[in-house]
From TrEMBL:
Residues 9-26 have a biased composition (Polar residues). This is Uncharacterized protein. Keywords: Membrane, Transmembrane, Transmembrane helix. The chain crosses the membrane at residues 680-703, 709-728, 740-760, 766-789. The keyword Transmembrane helix applies. The keyword Metal-binding does not apply. Residues 1-36 are annotated as: Disordered.
Amino acid sequence: MLSSEEADLSNSEAEGSADENVQTAGPQLYPGGPQLEPLKIDVKYEGLPPDIVLALRQVKQAAKTSLFHWKSFPIQVPEPISRSQSEGPRSSQSINPNELFVEPSFEELDRIALDSQGQLKKLTPSQIECIRQEGEFEVESVNFPGQVHRWRLCSLLQKGKGKTEESLQEGLALSLCLIIISAKNRFVSDNFSVRAGIRSLKEGLCQLLDALIGLPSLGSKGIMERLQEERAKYLVVELLCQSSDECDLDGLCHFIKDQVVRREKELEGKVNDDVDMIPPCPPIPLVFRTPKGSDVDLRLFDRQLMRRLSQILVGILERETKGWFLHFKEQHLAKFKDQLLSDADIEKETNLAVMDEYLRRVFRSILENPDIAAPGEGLGKLLVEQAKSVILMGRAMDNVHEMWNRTWLEKEKRLKINHPILSKIPAWMEERLLQAEAEFVAQHQWSAHEEALSLCRDHNLNQTLYFLSRDLIFMKEREPVLMKELQCLQEPTRTYRWYSHIWDPKKWVIHCLYQGQCEVIPTVVSNQTAPMTRPRSALREPTYFLEKFRTRTTSSRWLFWRWLNFIHCFYSWTNNAFYFFGYVIPWTSPISLQALISAEPFMADYELSQASSSLKMVNGSLCPQPSSTRQTLQSQLRLLWKHVSHERTSFKSKPSMAFLGNEISRHANWSWNYVLKGGLGSLFLCIFFPLTCLLVCCASLLLTIAAPIWMLVLVLGFHLFKILIYDLDSPELTEFSIQCQYFSPIILAVVWKIVILGIIQPIIAFLLGAIVCPILAAFVLLAGFLQYYARLAWDWIMLETLIKRLGRIPAVDTLFASRVAGPGLGSNFYYQITVPQALASLELRIEGEELRAYAQQMEKLIRKPQEDLRRFIQQVFQPFSATVTSTGIYLQLEKEAMILLQTLEDRVRRRTKELTLQLPADIRNRVRMPDWQLKLALHHGASMLCRHYPSRVLSRLSTPPTEFWEEKGLLVEDWPGLAALFFSEIFSPGFLCVLEDGETRFQLESHLDLSRFEVEATHFPEDMSSVMLTCHKRKNITIHSPYLHTDCFNPTVRPFLTRKTQTRKRTGPLNSRTKFETEKQKLMIPLPIPHPVLICALIYNRDNEESVPLESRICQHIMADLERSRPANAPPTDITSMDTDALSIMTSQQVSHHNLHSVTLNLVSPNEVSVNVTSHGDTRALRGYGTLV
């Protein structure tokens, strides 16, 4: 038995299903529509318990009342609109899309060429005169009034007087180009000219001298970075602190100085965490005042605040783009079109109006938003002013660029009018326009600043106005002076280091890095091996570094630096050769004299001891290096016989299990060890080892004595290699890589620079400019005039003898005449349709939309029995983990649905084919309508949509109407906009572009009776504003959707410099490319205002003697943490990074250049940095060639 709760649940589910059933079986869609019947369910109760049987019967009863299947489901596609209307017999005629638009035929050449007797027509006097002037003639079209067919004669028959004069002008332009461009450039241009040859000769001589002796090579680095730093400081150098924030400013600056001292102590290991507690960071003043008393509010530099505000701003910026853009855009397009503006002006003014409206809405929302005002009063106004300043500065730049574009076009137009022949020379035009550009830049270099100042003054942006004026003063007055001063601070472009080995270990230099200080300690040599040689990882323990080389430095600053390098190289290499061949080989090598005469092994090298004082070892002392142990002759003999004894003892201690027995194996082992190993080995060591040591040591000593001679030859050869083959010492060589410009510097200087470019080039350029170009110009001029008069005579003869007597209007293209223009031949024409045709196509679209909505509605209705069954099983049996399977009742419903869906798909496909326009894509893209007809079509199309679309389409959709309009991007019930959208989808987006007067058009005829779509102009409504908004689109007008980035509100974003270097190239006859560079505006958007932390430090340093050490690396890191809104008492990771930087700074000048070891600093923990020292092998080899800095 079911419980009362289960029974109630079953009853409620049955009632719910019954309600759904009632709704489904309600009013039918069409007469004789779908009929349903309860679903038959066969349940077998045999062998089931009574309780299960009772439960199944109740479930079956509930299923009968809620589940059904379709008994009959007739599918009738919606009737056409013409049949549903009862307006007379004409309305019942359906529209055939294939006959709605008929393309006109352009085959009319026979009609215009033949007369009534079937003969070709003769040319008229006007056509003959047109041939005389242009070499072409026109014939009126018969089928298309107002259109003409244009025929062009071949050049053999007639060229035309106008074209002949154009050819003469081109010849004159070419002749002038050879004189005023090519000939002049052969003397004064930067490429292939006499001037270029003199410059190359000078450069070749300098390169030759530089390769031979070494000329000074200096350069300035970091000029632009220093200028930008001074520019930012100049903006705020006059600011004053508010009287209420003076204590905070002093506390902040003292805090920074205390933190600098504390971190220096941390490097020295003198910080006691229990005593030296880090105080909290004082507040940073964010409001200042100018000398005139105006407030400067910099609260937006708080990055944590900006991160919170950015999330709010993103929502505002996205929300304010919706609901107004399309209507506002179309309204202003119509407004500016009525003012008879050009398309470019319409686009500019409309985009500007759209952006202004968007900004107005955004700024209003920002000022009214309570979340923005919550952190502080006036934040909304600050955000608005910041965004306005960025936008206005950008508009100032756009205004200057637009001014230049207008100047460029006016200059180009004026040159073409005043110089009709010279303007045909591209190089001459480019040169004149670039001169005008240079003059414009010189006159308007500060126009962007001035324009931005004017706009900010109009919008009362006093804070931006102050910084802009300061920036303009700096760029005008301070930047040129600073540029000259910084350019005078020149440094050598390359530095060379030379290393000489120190012979005596007692004179090796030992550096101790301890408590942040690096110092040289006395060298102590110990006889004991070091227990610890690896550098310590803790910063509070001393670390020692060994320097075995003496370093000498040269640079490219002075004259004769190459010979100075030669001297240093010779000295360094010779000293290292003395050390290697005179000390290392004869005394410390494995085959040295000491290895021959000493009785015990010896250690040839030393290493540093890193042990602490607790191990009874002097810190940083030199200890013998076990890895450098050398065996002597006596020690090798002892080792040999120890090995023999060990082998014999090992053999005797093991039981004999050999193949030949114990006796033979014993004698064989004795012979192998004592005779072969011991005897012959000792004989070999006693004879050959001393002989090898003596020969090698003597040869080494001879090389040592002769080292100055053969080393001089070697260094001289290496020096000649750098001069003749590859210049390794070139100051411009930034890395040791293969680069072609450094191969054979002397050969390049003599052969290429001096001979070819310096001598041959100016001679050839002089001959071309003084002789060849004038002769060619005279020849071109003479040939042009001869060609002109000969062509005129030839055209007159052909016109009088052939064309007038035999000329006829052709019907086909031939060798002598071809049609170049006419109806259907070009691509600059459109197809015009009538208002009834447009309305008929819109009716087809409405029926198509209704058909698609009907198909979706019927598909959902057909699948309803399956959905009800799935829902019933899920509600009843889901607690028992039951699921629907494609068997039984569900399979039967699925088969019925598939049959109905296939029938629905076939009928919908057949009806869709009947409603589809069979127009090619190229014809659709050319369909247009005149202005008043387009307005009528949109107006009556909107009325048609309003009359039929809600009942035929919207009522069938499963979504609410508001969602439909939102998907279309239109306002609710914007029927004119929907009509315009459908027309643009039926034909193309260009359909909404009005067909202007004078544009070529051809009528698309219709073979249908469209009288029910006829409209009269008298029905034109008086208020057509809603229709006009959609009619004023233009092919070449682009209106952008408004957009604003959140960076416009953030003054801490990296500013971009609007200074541009524009490079133009001009080409001409016999003329190489010449570059012209012009400097553009120097306005930064946004302005590079420094952070308030730096402003406070500048104010403090200005008013106090004990200043904040701004040049300190530690201070810069502390201020960077404060700027990132991170407290200076942050976790020790910041301090560790600072310690690593400090260590690298302290040891870079003393340790990093040593070739004995490489030092690597690694972060081990927040308070430790490991120092890894890696040896580069035996450093006593021949060393000396300088390394690059």
